[in-house]
Structure formats: C-alpha cells, structure tokens
Design a protein that fits this description.
mainly beta; globular; 1 helix; 4-stranded antiparallel beta sheet
Length: 315
C-alpha cells in the first residue's frame, strides 16, 4: 500500500492518501488524528498522487490513468480527465498568473505526470477532455512537476530535469545523470534539490534567462550521509527559509540536512517503521520548523522542533 501526504497549512489540516481508493483530512492540532472528511467518490483504483489548490478543489489522480477534481467542501466530483496510457505519478496546480508574476492566482491549469513519459496540461475552466498541451520530451517516466514563475519544471527517471520557459518557448535540459525520483525548488527560486536513486540529493543552481546554457549546471552541494535510497521513490523538500533539505529514507527516518554547513551533517527523525516515501515543509516563512512525513507503514506524522511544538498544538 502506497501512502503519501501533502500539508495544507493555510486551512490547518493535513491530507493523506493510500491504496484504499480514498483520501482523508486530519485535524493538524490533534495528536492522534481521526479523519474529518473522506473523499472516495470517483476513485475505483488506488490513489497515487494528490495535491490541493488555494480555492475549493482538490486534485487527485489514481492508477486508472484518470485525474479527478473534487470539491474540497462538498466532497463531490467536479470533473475528470483521461488521456495517459500509463499510471499517473504526480499532479500539480500550475496557476494562471497575474501582473506580479504570482502563478498561484486562480490555479487554472492542472498538470499530470505519468509513467507513459509525458506531462499533460489541463484547463480547469474548460469542459473539454482534451489536454491543452502534451510535453513528451522525457525518455522515461516523469516523476515530478513544479511551477516556477513562467516556467514548468519536470523531472524524469531518464536522469534529466527539464525547464519549459513559457515566455521564450525554450526547453532547457539539466542532465543529472541519475534517475530522479523527486525535486524541490527553493523558495527564493534560485536553486533546485533533486533526489536521485543513487542515494544522493544534489543541490544546484536553477536556470534563469541570464545563465548561459553551457554554464547552467552547477552542483554545489550533495547530501547522502544519513538517508538511504535506491529501491523506493522518495521525496525531498526545502524548508521555507531554504536553510534545510528534508528527505525521506528507506530506513523509515525523516532526514534533515543543513544547507549551509561545509561539512555534511544533519538530523534523523525516527518514528516510522517502514520507508518514508513523502515529506513536505510548511510554506509559511514563520514556520520553517514544521514538517510532515508519510510512510509505507500507513501513517502520516507532523513534526515540529521542541521549542515550538506547544505552539503548534495550541493553534
């Protein structure tokens, strides 16, 4: 059974999903949380990816190659999309954008990544079942999608991170040379942390229009001493202050690496009893110490530093 999680801190709950064709909300302030809502409508196969937008819908995808948009409040299915020829691995809300380059406004474009080596973009406002665009440059399954300004960034098991610059129409390919299971973009937008199957998390400069293409690749830090990887898809994340890289581990630990240390160190958070497949960090700048993790043991855990744990519980 696969289990993963994504924290939606603005509304003070967490969401988990697993192999029981449903997804559940859990109150963030309850130590042993009970589900306050279950979303099962439209899911006839195990759920493999989940994300939320900032309005009232929750975007899900399941192994029947279908994307399902569900109203977060009513738990009713709003729309479904089909088209992938293999299991959907990741979903994302890319946003519509505004004059301040805020891509979260509206979140009108959905994206799905699949084992069929494609990324498909869908118009959430349209009733059309046809994708807006198909990105088919990957040579193997696409493992992750992120939105960065006017860019769409994807990672693939073929070992490449691809940045689609929508303003210029350029495709910039970063050859990491190892299968990539997940990546995270720093909150300042300047760097990318990629988690690879060789057990190394690589932190390097993110492409921007000022970079020469031949100078784009610059891995300036590697993390590998504490987490174990090689057989499972593990996620990584960056804290909201970009000072720490957080990773799951096949040993069940949540590993926190400091970014600025010249000598690799870090901390291991132990509670899970099976590989920790998913991690996420609170996006609020005032809460860089808040982390959530989910494991193949079927549990999701919210972590906080001891100094602020009581504030987390009170709120």
């Amino acid at each position: 059974t696969k289990l993963s999680s994504q924290e939606y801190y603005a509304r003070q709950y967490s969401q988990t999903y697993g192999g029981d064709e449903s997804t559940q909300q859990q109150q963030q302030h309850i130590p042993s949380a009970l589900p306050m809502q279950t979303y099962s409508e439209g899911h006839v196969h195990p759920v493999h990816a989940i994300t939320t937008n900032s309005s009232s819908t929750m975007l899900l995808s399941s192994s029947d190659k279908t994307i399902i948009a569900t109203n977060l409040v009513t738990a009713q299915t709003v729309q479904k999309w089909w088209g992938h020829t293999a299991r959907i691995e990741y979903v994302a809300c890319l946003g519509g954008g505004d004059e301040n380059n805020n891509t979260n406004v509206g979140e009108e474009i959905y994206a799905s990544a699949s084992y069929d080596a494609t990324v498909r973009l869908w118009d959430a406002r349209s009733k059309s079942k046809e994708p807006l665009m198909i990105l088919d440059d990957a040579k193997d399954s696409v493992s992750c999608i992120k939105s960065g300004g006017s860019d769409i960034i994807t990672s693939s098991i073929d070992g490449n991170i691809r940045t689609y610059d929508l303003r210029t129409g350029k495709l910039i390919t970063e050859d990491v040379s190892h299968p990539i299971t997940s990546f995270a973009v720093s909150n300042d937008g300047r760097s990318i942390a990629s988690s690879c199957l060789d057990g190394v998390i690589r932190l390097f400069d993110k492409y921007n229009s000022l970079h020469r293409i031949d100078a784009r690749k610059k891995v300036f830090q590697k993390f590998h001493s504490l987490h174990k990887s090689g057989n499972y898809k593990l996620e990584c994340a960056l804290t909201s202050n970009d000072e720490y890289v957080v990773s799951g581990s096949e040993c069940g630990a949540v590993v926190v690496y400091p970014v600025q240390d010249s000598v690799e160190g870090g901390s291991m958070l132990r509670r899970h009893t099976a590989p920790t497949c998913s991690v996420t960090c609170c996006p609020q700048s005032a809460r860089p110490w808040l982390i959530a993790s989910a494991s193949y043991d079927g549990s999701a855990i919210v972590w906080a530093s001891q100094e602020v744990a009581h504030h987390c519980m009170e709120e």
